[in-house]
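FIELD: query
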Amino acid sequence: MYSSLEECIIDLEKHGHLVRIHEEVDPYLEMAAIHLKVYEAGGPALLFENVKGSKFRAVSNLFGTIERSKFIFRSTWQAAQNVIALRNDPIKALKNPFKNFEKGLAALKALPLKTSGSLPVTAQEIQISDLPLIQSWPMDGGAFVTLPQIYSEDPDKPGIMNSNLGMYRVQLNGNEYDLNKEIGLHYQIHRGIGVHQDKANKLGAPLKVSCFVGGPPAHTLSAVMPLPEGLSEITFAGLLAGRRFHYSYLDGFCISNDADFVITGEIHPGDTKPEGPFGDHLGYYSLIHPFPVMKVHKVYAKPNAIWPFTVVGRPPQEDTSFGQLIHELTGDAIKQEIPGVKEVHAIDAAGVHPLLFAIGSERYTPYQQVKQPTEILTIANRMLGTGQLSLAKYLFITAEEDRPLTTHDEVDFMTYILERMDLNRDVHFYTNTTIDTLDYSGTGLNSGSKVVFAAYGDPKRELCKEVPDALKELREFENARLIMPGVVAIQGPAFSDYAKAQQELQDFSDALKAKGPIPSCPMIVLCDDSTFLSERLNNFLWATFTRSNPSHDIYGVNSYYEHKHWACDNLIIDARVKPHQAPPLIADPMVEKNIERLFAKGASLGGIL
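FIELD: result
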């Protein structure tokens, strides 16, 4: 149990999980580049003791491995898991009240505690420019807070028990922000703070917001937890930290007494400024868009405050561990929310939201001889209307029948579906709908399409294990490469616009049709570099599903419509880079060279890689 971030850092160092960096390091690109290199090597947490331009220390890679994350929460993990399980299935508590009394008591002890007297975090009043202004990627719009805990309250029901604590990135400088007076707050759809701001807007009043940075690591994790109804992030923070969340109010703003830093301010109705670009977790930049401006009221720091940060980019990254932690803590929550669901896996390698695998149940028509998707289609619709799952773009769903199945073996799972999918029946599009804010494959911000691939029943085909001859020696389409059974990547000319693409794809599908049926290859991926796409499974998952918009980029051999339902013989996904898509994240080679000094023999990170 840690009462502060520093306690955690000391504990990690004592057990060999943290290394101190004594040399001066530039927060402009260098700190992020060091973090990325150490994370990739499976290395320790990093304490930067000499941040150029700031008197404050900074720490990163705290959650860099699932093992270290579990070590941090080793004394409270089980209690937190128990309480979440109880909230997910309250009937269990009624069936065995004495067994579950202790779990309820644990949640009660985690309720937030309002304190008075001295507030350590307000010991020094500082400015935004005093903070470690960390910029991670060359094209970022400025420095960002990457592990913030953004606190807001319901204007209709003020108070901490009706609050929201979320992790929404904060831009500290750059663009049109007035340094030390304004910061940018970026939150996406389906976020709790949006409900609060909407209510404040209707009242014509500013929304008071507090940005907590640091404090016990449990507070950081709580800000990203999808919690069951009735369990607030603040209560969960106390539960996972093993001590109640200590808070006070100052000038009408909530202050976390355990945080290392607190930024308070207001968001006024209709007040936005350009925010971004920002190198994001899909592996591309999210571009400049208008987002709410927070007018800074005060900035506070505790004595010897430490600034925690992370770096996001093409997965896997440190936020991958967050996802694993959340999955292990919440356990079977999705099964309680959506009846019939057995397993759901948001694919990290594809940037999480673009690709979802699910196993459901088929119990509607057990008496029928011919097996086909029925209940799993109902489950798919329910999933695409549920919270964060609704941001999924591609959903592959099936039900177990003849053997056990897991969504975590990506090749086996996709093979199972592709063997059974009826391409004349089992492809279901959702057009002109919402997708992830960070996904630029669609038609606009938050706008795009979805597709469900549903399969159930006996295998319909044997999948190819080498490139079929029909995909060789095609004019303008070359270098066909097998990715996995039944899936082949092929290179085509660079994408210019959709009018030309439709003609190119028509010519391609006509050429394949002329060569005769290819039932063993149900999925063909058109790309810019088939060698890259096929050399690693993660390359296929990332490039294919982040660079395509189902309604615009899925074509088919012998495709046709029947009563508004689209069908084909072979799927073609156009995963070429499109002009409207955001640029991928590329490190600065000069910075990469500069940080080599820290990994040299005798330097702070010598021997780490």
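FIELD: remark
Residues 17 and 408 are 28 Å apart (CA to CA).
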